[in-house]
Amino acid sequence: MSNHISVEDVPLSRFHRLLTVRSGGGSFVDGYVLSIIGIAMTKVSPALGLDAFWEGLIAASALIGIFFGGFIGGALTDRLGRRVLYFVGPTLFIVCSLAQYWVQSGEMLFALRFLNGVAVGIEYPVATAFLVEFLPKRYRGPCLATLTILWFAGAAAAYLTGEAILNFGGPDAWRLTLASTAVIGALLFLVRLGTPESPRWLMSKGREQEAEAIIKRVYGHDFGLKNLPQQAECQHLSFGSLLHSGYGKRMAFVTIFWTCSVIPVFAVYAFAPRVLEALHLSGNWASYGSIAITLLFVVGCIIATRLVNSLGRRKLLLHSFLWSGLALLLLGLLRDGPSMVILLMFGAYALFIGGAQVLQLVYPNEIFPTEIRAAAVGVGTSMSRVGAAVGTWLVPISLQTIGIGYTMYIAAGITFFGLLVSWLLAPETAARSLEDAASLDAPQPKVSGNLSKRSSW
Q: Judging by beta carbons within 10 Å of its beta carbon (0-12, 13-18, 19+), is residue 213 exposed, middle or buried?
């Protein structure tokens, strides 16, 4: 029977679920790292004597690190293999997070958070490429989308943990808050022990015997290379050559839509309490409002995960940009409105942007071939973080100079630009094998409601 079954058509197994946890742990740490600074900043600034310039720079430092880590991680993951790079991120998380406990200056904190950002940047290409190359096709979208849910879960955990430590941790509580990431990094390192290499990557390097052994180990002794879909013969081409051969348009789409979907989100997470205060929400409204909005981001991603197959990638992305952009526009228009209206609009943004967020990891892993998949994810990660870093750095300056209203208008404009680019360039990849989705010549499939019934997990 297995002679005729592709590894992309097998049921979801315990191995697949464990691999989702192993890869998703990196997303959880990412959300935690990028959000914990927003909680600690109110205590860090007076302790280290930071001005608005250094506040913005430190908030953006991890994003700057992601820029370099994405390029490095993508290139090395395609060259050295998925498994080798799988443990670099957790190691950096542990070392750099512990070192933050003894930080004495803004410059030192910037450097350590920059290195944590490098670790995050490495995580994106290696963890997602690892996952997508093992998953059955009908579970690919939901499982990859789950990584984004875990990102927001990590962000929510940062807010909850950060508030608890700052309230009960004593005078150096902000140091404990920043160092707390090391605990998650250690758990991630341990849970990844025993993960095998990707057979698709081994095949791309001509290591067929090793690939065969891993397929039998994961799928059963009746499976082998005969059950692995034929991969395109493009390993002789460089990354640049593949972009010129037609993948450049896809790279542009991924980079632009990813950038437009992360700039407002990271700006909100880095300075959520300050943004809410600028919208006249202070005290408990700002504190608990930040937590509520974070949880709504998680809910939005969960809803998008359930729709990623049935609605389709393209339609989900367009709706996400449209409605979240309108919510930001209304935040600018109603900036002097009642507190409950402000929170309602922020909550609507958090819910609707979930579609674009989950597709950040789905699209780039589906529309590029194995030989450049991790590199493409790395480039998309890096380039999107350039905009996110600049946007995050400018938030406190923007709030001081042009005010909250125009800041929200700019965020809405960025979101609507993402909508325009997605409408022009976004392909549909639901219901396609990984090879077909990455092919430039394969026809577009019709997305049926039946797929969603089969893809629930």
A: middle
With CA atoms as reference, report the closest residue to 410 among 393, 427, 398, 396: 398
In contact, 384 and 262? CB cutoff 8 Å: yes
What b-and-e string marks burial along 289-313, b requiring 16 or more CB atoms within 10 Å of the CB?
bbebbbbbbbebbbbbbebbbbbbb
- In this predicted model, which residue has the larger pLDDT, 190 or 245? 190
**pTM, full prediction:** 0.72
* Distance of alpha carbon 158 from alpha carbon 154, whole angstroms: 6
Other Cβ atoms less than 10 A from the Cβ of 233: the count is 10
Cα–Cα distance for residue pair 365/436, rounded to 1 Å: 12
Express each pLDDT in 130-183 by its tens digit: 888 888 878 887 888 888 788 878 888 888 898 889 888 777 898 999 999 999
Residues across the chain: 457
Q: Domains, the chain, ranges and CATH?
A: 14-195+229-441 (1.20.1250.20)
Sequence-distant (≥ 6) Cβ neighbours of residue 113 within 8 angstroms = 33, 37, 58, 61, 62, 65, 96, 100
- Distance between CA atoms of residues 18 and 16, nearest Å: 5
pLDDT of residue 317: 95
| Distance from C-alpha of 398 to C-alpha of 404, rounded to nearest angstrom | 8
Expressed in percent and rounded to 5, the helix, strand and coil fractions of the chain are 80, 0, 20
Task: Share the mean pLDDT of the chain.
Answer: 81
Sign of CA dihedral 78, 80, 85, 86: positive
Tens of pLDDT, residues 78-106:
788 888 888 999 999 999 999 999 998 88
| pLDDT tens per residue across span 252-290 | 899 899 889 888 876 665 555 556 665 555 555 555 666
Which residues, other chains included, contact 186 with Cβ-Cβ below 8 Å and sequence gap of 6+? 90, 94
